[in-house]
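re: ur msg from earlier - yeah i can do the adenosine-5'-triphosphate complex, just paste it... oh wait u already did. ok heres what im feeding in:
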Amino acid sequence: MSETVVAINNANIYQGENLVLENVNFTISRGEFVYLIGKTGSGKSSLLKTLYGELPLKEGTGNVVGFDLKGMNWKKVPFLRRNLGVVFQDFQLLTDRNIYENLKFVLQATGWTDKRLMEEKINDVLDKVGLKSKGFKMPFEISGGEQQRVDIARALLNSPKLILADEPTGNLDPETSDEIMQLLFRIVKDYGTSIIMATHDFMVIKNYPSRTLTTERGKVLDSATTAIEA
Ligand SMILES: Nc1ncnc2c1ncn2[C@@H]1O[C@H](COP(=O)(O)OP(=O)(O)OP(=O)(O)O)[C@@H](O)[C@H]1O
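and the outut:
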């Protein structure tokens, strides 16, 4: 039996008083890559926000990397986040320091203190994303694709079992998107990380087919259990 990293059962997802998604049910196993697609405003971000504790789960049950979402105390949310990697399209690096120092800043903010361990970890994640020799570069000295790689490196810092990626190829040209997709699929294969990636990029889905969750008319359809067109 493979390890379950996300289990959502009979969940209703709200934005304030508004019900956005109803009766959501899905599980994701270790090492699965799952797309999250759907029209603008159909609830993708709301679902991702629920998974990383930004929106409370009011109805139904949810477990993400061992954390119970239902009734989660806000004090626990940082611990959940430390066990997740989050990648956004509009991620901004701190412009006053190089890439290495940007990553060190994140480690320190999540409780790391040992200098040698931090150095090892930063070199490790930069190596994983193919930027080992670029740690000394300032943010303005690297390309959009490299910035996205740094964001993925940042997401890997705390060795998460699950990465949530919201449109990670949204601002990239097709060739650079392709490189980012290869990197994400390699992370899944090599480290058994699970990834949920929200996207509008159908070229990417065509070139890298995988299980797909679709938000549509207040429901989440799952290609693993429903016959839907991706
Ligand atoms: N902070 C908020 N407060 C109130 N309503 C919100 C908020 N954010 C989103 N909504 C509403 O919730 C619904 C779902 O929005 P959501 O952002 O989850 O959609 P989405 O599928 O991620 O869209 P996009 O593809 O544009 O990112 C929409 O009706 C939206 O207007």
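cool cool. The chain has a mean pLDDT of 93. ping me if u need the other ligands too
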